Amino acid sequence: MESFVFNTTKSLINQPGAIAQLADICKQHGVRKPIIVTDQGIVACGLLEKLEAVFHREDLPYACFCDIVADPPERVIYEALDLARSQGVDGVIGFGGGSSLDSAKLIALMLASGEKLEDIYGIEQAKGPRLPLMLIPTTAGTGSEATAVAIVTTGETSKMGVVTPLLLPDVAILDAELTLGLPAHITAATGIDAMVHAIEAYTSAHKKNRYSDILAKEALDLLANNILKVCQNGQDLEARQAMLLGAFLAGQAFANSPVAAVHALAYPLGGHFHIPHGLSNSLVLPHVMRFNNSHCHELYAELAPIIMGDDYIAHEDSKAVSTELIKHIELLIGNLKLCTHLRDLDIQEKDLPVLAKDAMLQTRLLQNNPRNVSEQDALNIYKAAW
Ligand SMILES: NC(=O)c1ccc[n+]([C@@H]2O[C@H](COP(=O)([O-])OP(=O)(O)OC[C@H]3O[C@@H](n4cnc5c(N)ncnc54)[C@H](O)[C@@H]3O)[C@@H](O)[C@H]2O)c1
Ligand SMILES: [Fe+2]
After folding, report:
1. How many angstroms separate the CA atoms of 40 and 279, rounded?
2. Which residue puts its alpha carbon closest to atom 36 of ligand 1?
3. Whole-model pTM?
4. How far apart are CA 264 and CA 126, in angstroms?
C-alpha cells in the first residue's frame, strides 16, 4: 500500500440556499467584519445583492472588493489588499469563479502574515498565519475551494502559483442556487475543466493514491452524468448541485494528485490569447489523451464506464476501450457547443511553436504526465488541436 499525506478543506456545506448561514458562520469563526472578494460579473447578475442581504439581515458589517478580473494579475491582488487593510477587516469571503476564489485565498493570507507575493510563489514558501477564509464558488469548475493553490498572472503571458495548505479554506459553501443563472458556455467550459481535474488526477504519474482515485471517480460520475443536463436546462437545481459537488471532489483529488499535460498545454492559450481556463483545457483535452493513450490506456479504460454511461461497451482490450472513451469525450465537447479548433479562435498556425515553447516551461505540471512530453510532442498536439 502506498504512503501518502492528504490535505483538504476543513468544513463543507453542500446545500442549496446555504449562503443564508454565512453571517452565522462568520460569527462562529470570530469574524466581526469580513471582506467579500468578487468580480463585476457577479455584481451585474445580482448575486452580490443576495449575499449582502444575508449580512444586512444579521446586522453584520462588511467590506467589498468587486474588481477581480479573470486570471487575476498581481496589481489587482494588491488593490484588494489595500482596500481590506483600510477597512480593518478580520475575515475574507471569496465569492465567484476561480479568479475571485484564488484572489480571496491570497488576500486572507497576506493580510494576516504581511508576506509579499514575490516571496510566496512556489511550493510551501508561505509561513502564514492567515485570516479566517470562506469560499463560495459560483461556477462548478476550478474546485479552488478544495485546493491549496492560487494562480496569479505575473507578466504579459505568464502565470505563477502559490501552493500551501494555508490556502485551504476554513469553510466551503456549495449552494447551487447561485449557479442557476450561469450562462451555458461558461457552464460547459468550467464543467470540462472539473472533468479534466479528475481525469488528470486519476492518471497522475507521482502522487496518485487510493484516496484521490475514489474522489476522481466519484467526481466524474457526478460531472459526466450532469454536464449536458445543466447546459440544456440551467434551472435544474439538482443537476447544478451535483456539478458543484463533482467540481469540489475533483478539486480534492487533484489537490493531492496533481494535474498534468492538459493543464500545461492549456496555460499558454490563456496567457497568449486570453482564452478562458476551461475552454483552453477543452481544446487540448482529446489530443493530449490520444497522445497519452499508449502509456495509460488501462487507467483511461477504468474511467470509461463512469464517463460513458449507457454508451460504454465492455471489451477485453483496454486500448480499444480507451480509444472509444476519447471519441466519446470529443463528441461530448461538440454536444456542449464548445469551440473545438484553435484556428476558430484567431490563432494562426505560425503561433503554435511559441505555444509549444511556453508549454515546456510548465515543468511543475509536465512531470505529472503519464508520458514524457517533448517540445516537438507539444507542437504536434497543438497542430492536432488547430
Ligand atoms: N486554485 C486552483 O486550484 C485553480 C485551478 C484551476 C484554475 N484556477 C484559476 O481559476 C481561474 C478560472 O476560474 P473560472 O473558470 O471559474 O472563471 P473566472 O473566475 O475567471 O470567470 C468566471 C466568469 O463567469 C462569471 N460568473 C461566475 N459565476 C457566475 C454565475 N453564477 N452567474 C453568472 N456569471 C457568473 C464571472 O463574473 C466571470 O466573468 C483562472 O485564474 C485559473 O488560473 C485555479
Ligand atoms: Fe483547471
Report:
1. 21
2. 41
3. 0.96
4. 24
